[in-house]
Design a protein that fits this description.
The protein has one domain. About 80% of the residues lie in helices and about 0% in strands. It is built from 11 helices and no strands. The chain is globular.
Amino acid sequence: MDGSAWGKPRSSVYIALGVTGLLVAVTGFSTTYFFPIAGGSFHAPLIVHLHGLAAFCWVALFLLQPTLIRLNAFPAHQLAGMAAIPVAGMVLIGGAGTGVFAVSRDLAAGMGDFAYASIVGTVAGLVIFFCLVVAGILNRQRPETHKRLMVLATIILLWPAWFRLRHIFPGIPNPEVTLALLAADSLILIVMARDKLAEGRVHPVYLWLGPAIIAEQTLEVLLFGSPGWIDAGKAIYGALS
């Protein structure tokens, strides 16, 4: 997240996105992570905790960067941006380990072949997230491109938190659609609409990658649990475990 990327006049938009992301992350994981840890009922290997720490650090970093711009703290902004790749790398590695742990746990719980289903979407999301971050770093000298790639990377990272809101709002119908698609991907539509209103056009990053991300996540929902999906999960689990 490079120093000149955000632009003070527009930083409030990204601050709002960062605050939203932090609220969703804390709320979404409250019942499945924070409260169980506080109650001593959550048990998982270290890699799971490292992944959680890295993911929250990323969301905090995403909020920090435009805030520093707003405060005219440009050197601090540039210094903080150096953490992007190591944090994203830990998200990727820790997320893969967490996916393996989840499959092993579900197999032990007697879920059978269905236990392999979750790791496909987990790994796909992690790879897309990391590729967007790398692309963003490579485009540091193109601020308008850079910051939008980071926005999309953060939206991808927040997907699991959106879906976990089903534990807090159990009455929401079809959470895999309502939360995992409509709510999670609404942020993509919002930033596209913001571009159109403020810039007079939707930036190519949002115009091309935004719909592609929505399409990929829609396919995940449609294919989840299918025989081919399960086979892919077995292959990924076998390669990572």
